[in-house]
């Protein structure tokens, strides 16, 4: 499937579909840029100012793409059509040797990746909670420090698996950025996490992506969220 990237360049057969936010897709976009994989970044718009929103940009296409389990994000690579963000990440990572070199290393990377997914859910669960204001303080003072300290204790080398970058690093970087929407002071006590983010951002293809028109600083969540959304 051919298309245009956000910068206007003709892209290859791969299409990544997601809302026009960072959300679940930003680690996927970043790993595609890291691997220099051309792709069409199909960003769906959530329209309206609430309380009712128009999702038709996505729902009008949802059943027409040949997806077995129609959902966002999705990735289409010729005859390969995948939904579920972790499945997409691993598909790309497997093609570029970013899943680990041994069974033990792959298991550790997967363990960390799924732990990150759980911790990310704590963030999104709060941001989309109608009672966001009731639980914000507990997240900032208790949940976030506990999560960040746990990862700070774990990260002892340059990246999750040691000296070599893996797909879990893309997930960890994004989770840290999500938590920092509550203030960078949350991560500042953990110097190794600060340095991890700097190393990640300094990887040449990632740095180039982050300086390009394709990179989206925010929002992290969709309009329906109570925090870090289009209206924040």
UniProtKB/TrEMBL annotation:
One of its GO terms (molecular function) is glutathione transferase activity. Keywords: Transferase. Its EC number is 2.5.1.18. InterPro entries: Glutathione-S-Trfase_C-like, Glutathione-S-Trfase_C_sf, Glutathione_S-Trfase, Glutathione_S-Trfase_N, GST_C, GST_superfamily, Thioredoxin-like_sf. Pfam families: GST_C_3 (PF14497), GST_N (PF02798). One of its GO terms (biological process) is glutathione metabolic process. Residues 12-100 form the GST N-terminal domain. Residues 102-220 form the GST C-terminal domain. It comes from the Eukaryota. It catalyses: RX + glutathione = an S-substituted glutathione + a halide anion + H(+). PROSITE patterns: GST_CTER (PS50405), GST_NTER (PS50404). CDD domains: GST_N_Mu. Coiled coil: none annotated. Conjugation of reduced glutathione to a wide number of exogenous and endogenous hydrophobic electrophiles. Belongs to the GST superfamily. Mu family. Belongs to the GST superfamily. Pi family. Homodimer. This is glutathione transferase.
């Amino acid at each position: 499937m051919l298309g245009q990237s956000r910068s206007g360049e003709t892209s290859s057969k791969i299409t990544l579909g997601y809302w026009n936010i960072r959300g679940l897709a930003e680690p996927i976009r970043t790993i595609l840029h890291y691997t220099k994989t051309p792709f069409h970044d199909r960003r769906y718009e959530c329209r309206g100012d609430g309380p009712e929103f128009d999702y038709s940009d996505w729902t009008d296409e949802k059943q027409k793409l040949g997806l077995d389990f129609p959902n966002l994000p999705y990735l289409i690579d010729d005859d390969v059509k995948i939904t579920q963000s972790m499945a997409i990440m691993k598909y790309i990572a497997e093609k570029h040797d970013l899943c680990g070199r041994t069974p033990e290393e792959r298991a550790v990377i997967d363990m960390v990746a799924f732990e990150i997914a759980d911790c990310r859910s704590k963030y999104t669960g709060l941001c989309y909670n109608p009672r966001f204001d009731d639980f914000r303080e507990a997240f900032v003072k208790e949940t976030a420090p506990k999560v960040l300290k746990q990862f700070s204790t774990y990260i002892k080398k340059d990246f999750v698996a040691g000296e070599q970058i893996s797909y879990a690093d893309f997930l960890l970087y994004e989770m840290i950025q999500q938590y920092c929407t509550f203030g960078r002071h949350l991560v500042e006590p953990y110097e190794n996490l600060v340095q991890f983010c700097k190393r990640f951002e300094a990887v040449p293809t990632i740095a180039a992506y982050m300086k390009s028109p394709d990179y989206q600083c925010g929002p992290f969540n969709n309009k329906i969220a109570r925090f870090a959304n289009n209206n924040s």
